[in-house]
Amino acid sequence: MNSKKAALVYNWTLTFMVIGILAWAFLQFGSKHSLGSLGTKQMTIFKIYSMAESALFYIDQSAKYALQQAVYDLAQNGVSVSDFELNEININLPFEKNKCGKFKDAYVWYELSKGTSGNILKNDCFDSNPLITNLKFTFDKKLNDYLSLSPYNIRINNYDYDASGSIEIIGKARTPLIFDILKDETKPIIIKEPVEVQVEQKKFSDFSTQELKMCAKGVKCVLSEDAFKLMVKAQEIAATKYKRKLVVNSALRTQEEQIAIWNKFAATYPDVTERRKKICDPNNLKCPHTTGNAVDVVFEGKTTKTMTNNDWLILHEIMTGVKNDKGEPLWVRYGEEKRYDIGEPWHFECCGTDRHKRAQAKGVTAIV
Amino acid sequence: MSCKIFHNKKALSEFILDIWSYIIFAVTIFLFLILFKLQSVAPTKNELRGIADIPTSSLTLNTYLRAPAIIDGNEISIAELIRLWHLNPDKYKSSLETASIDILNRLEYEYTHPQTKNKVVRGFHISINRQKEQANAINPIIKFKSKSFQDGLCISNQYGCINLGEQIIPISESSTLYIVLREGYKAK
């Protein structure tokens, strides 16, 4: 009798469960959006694959043109690197300078000097040894220029080069191309607040991937919180008053990065005093970029090479246009007032760096 | 008779309950069978349209851009020829046109529609634009099409012809071009 009762309960329970499951299934299949289009995720993977192929094609073509241009430029400059290119921005590889320098804006290929006995000595300035070093350096710079124009998120300064044969350069990427399969790349990205990161107990803002697009492609942009806020203000001034857009080429550098840059210039400037004029010595621990309160900035679509004097002037006005309540500029430039050939017209500091304090004490907007 | 099977009233009521559960179970299954059948008469169309062509078309565009062309006695790719044309339009326009149309004609293929079983020839349209526009939009500086591409019969969605293949190519350190491939068809 008891087992019969249990069977009765079982029958009804089963019946109600089946009704419930079927009703749920009916509602699920009936819903328009329950399944979505079949194969969407698979198609997304295919699309991302195509996008990666496109990026690789872009890199291939860029490398081809960059090499042609690098060879041409080196031939023009007598296998040397142009002086104009010697700044800390985008320096990724070592290079060597021309032994004899320039005469009337042309590189000297050989010098004549008088010997002790009055005879004329021919001193050859052309040295083929740095050819490969300088070719790699120039090629890398050109390639970076091309890659920074690409619509894909291709990292710059990301290749190690091997030169072989007559002129063949093989670049090996240090980090791979990354595409987010789950994120629809074609959809607009929602602007996010900058990510806060803690470095040495200070608050920093990483805006590398932010949709403000204030950071140059392939560059890691981190600034102190205060500097970031001032940079956003400068961007607002640029947009509203001058219809321009600022792009940060370099921001916070770690001590290791500054040491690496310092070391990279060792071959070019073996004399430390001369090197200090060009690059901040990481041993003094006061390098502006390592504080997160310094930026190297240009206008969107321009490089330090293509910025005109007028551009530098406008950039200076924009950056120094960010002021405090007392009307003091909160950004100061590395250079001299109304001069853009001294220092670095793209380099600005704020928030109590050594240069910033000196400029405020003197009441100027630019200081060496 | 009933007295033989059911010793008392309680047993009879349990039997009836049992039968009821079987009947309800069977009726439920039958009812849902009808409901599912009715639902399947008008299915929601969840097929992928147009987008399914993107991977192959991107490959076709890449093939086109990598295809060789002989210019001034040298073998260069179409991508390089586009760059040369952009730098010197007068000199390279006809070479680019001839080489492009020739390659696009050779890339055409026969296509049988999976549902209608109609046989068509798929043709291509290439446009070279200064920059990427809004989705599906193009603003060509120059365009070429293969012999089977018909403007009104392109692969499209509700917004118009789909840009099935897209590629940005570098021109100089400060400029790029946006190449778009579209596909159309023509009855065989």
Describe the structure.
The complex is a heterodimer of chains A (about 375) and B (about 190). In chain A, helix 2 crosses helix 3 and helix 4 packs across helix 8. Chain A is built from nine helices and 14 strands. The longest helix of chain A is centred in the N-terminal third of the chain and has 37 residues. About 5% of the residues of chain A have low confidence. Chain A is extended. Helix content of chain A is about 40%, strand content about 20%. Chain A is an alpha+beta fold and about 375 residues long. In chain B, strand 1 and strand 2 form a beta hairpin. In chain B, the strands form three sheets. In chain B, strands 3, 4, 5, 8 and 9 form a five-stranded antiparallel β-sheet that branches. The model of chain B has no long low-confidence stretch (mean pLDDT about 85). Helices cover about 40% and strands about 30% of the residues of chain B. At the A-B interface, helix 1, helix 2 and helix 3 of A face helix 2, helix 3, helix 4 and strand 8 of B.
Average the pLDDT over all residues of chain A and give the rounded result. 78
Count of discrete domains of chain A? 2
Approximate strand percentage of chain A: 15-25%
Spell the H/E element sequence of chain A. Answer: HHEEEEHEEEEEHEHHHEHEEHE
Cα-atom Rg of chain B, whole angstroms? Answer: 31 Å
Low-confidence stretches of chain A: 185-192, 194-200
